[in-house]
Amino acid sequence: MAGRHEKEKGVNVQVLLRCRPFSDDELRCNAPQVITCNEWQREVAVSQNIAGKQIDRIFTFDKVFGPSAHQSDLYEQAVVPIVNEVLEGFNCTIFAYGQTGTGKTYTMEGDSKKSKNGELPPGAGVIPRAVKQIFDTLEGQNAEYSVKVTFLELYNEEITDLLAPEEISKAALDEKQKKPLLLMEDGKGGVLVRGLEEEIVTSANEIFTLLERGSAKRRTAETLLNKQSSRSHSLFSITIHIKESTPEGEELIKCGKLNLVDLAGSENISRSGAREGRAREAGEINKSLLTLGRVITALVEHLGHVPYRDSKLTRLLRDSLGGRTKTCIIATVSPSVHCLEETLSTLDYAHRAKNIKNRPEVNQK
Ligand code: ADP
């Protein structure tokens, strides 16, 4: 069954581009706009003259969301089908990739995670919307189900459990740093994180409370350990088991997993960071982001060797990248000239993943 799906679906990597509106600071200094989004043509044009050198480039993506796109537009057009796949028993991963300050967290988490009377605020991002879609669907169907979530942070290739119950303190954090959570093969092609808290949840609201707890812990840990969130990846995973009965009375169990990943700022990939003792950090972030790029390339090009093992991030996501899974990369950029260099680097990274998929020899496989 799995093999059949694999053949039918192939490796599915969808790449979206989102350009945020100008920030107040950018507006105040009249930063020229260097990006034009054509949502209809799914194109992003970059045009700028720098020191007499004219840059004119056009990139095409699976979908493009300009500065006026609402959270609901992105969710309905790009994420609803992915969550439906998860509810059908597939593993899917959504990444936010881009320079710090371009809207990764806004896209994934959004303005507010609190739901009012079951309704989400307009600023709610992908995570709360996915949680709501999952529970609305599960509660509306006549099947037994169970939902588990994990929430972790990867910093310097070390994992912090954002749902661990203990009160956070400098001493506890130091202890955790000495005894980092361990990644272990689960014998089924995936990995387990030994010691990671897995919360069983029964409603969307319970998840919203856990998310708040996890985000607060992330902020506290950042302050206590003098970390920068732009240098860490956060991974929120929802695993769903659904027990259904076929008309013949047979029992059918579907198990799907959705990974929602807010990646470290992509500026860490291009800058050496070899200043002020940040060399190791930059190297480790580099490793995860670069390995992720290589893994996606290997998957879409059907290369024999996929280098999952080369970074913790890709080891963690091994059962959700490739094979019967859908992967979506949301690349985020700023419209301002001040970010031009990083914007071009983000567009190139994202476009590489998109472009490879379209090679005819790959499509024919
Ligand atoms: P990142 O996670 O990439 O560092 P943030 O998500 O923190 O960036 O976004 C930086 C700022 O820009 C935040 O104040 C956020 O609210 C705002 N922002 C980002 N994207 C959008 C958007 N599409 N619409 C409105 N505001 C946005």
What does this structure look like?
It is a single chain. With 365 residues, the chain is of the alpha/beta class. The protein has one domain (2-363): Kinesin motor domain (Kinesin, 3-Layer(aba) Sandwich). The protein is built from 12 helices and 14 strands. It has helices spanning 2-9, 24-28, 71-87, 104-108, 126-140, 170-178, 204-224, 267-270, 279-300, 312-316, 340-357, 360-363; strands at residues 12-19, 35-38, 43-50, 53-60, 63-65, 91-98, 144-155, 158-161, 182-185, 191-194, 199-201, 233-245, 251-262, 326-333. Strands 1, 5, 6, 7, 8, 11, 12, 13 and 14 form a 9-stranded mixed beta sheet that branches. α9 (279-300) packs parallel to α11. The radius of gyration is 21 Å and the shape is globular. The two termini are 19 Å apart. The site of adenosine-5'-diphosphate has 12 residues, from α4. ATP binds at residues 98-105. Responsible for microtubule translocation. May be important for the organization of phragmoplast-specific arrays of microtubules. Plays an essential role in stabilizing the mitotic spindle. Required during mitotic cytokinesis. Residues 12-356 form the Kinesin motor domain. It is found in: Cytoplasm, Cytoskeleton, Spindle. This is Kinesin motor domain-containing protein.
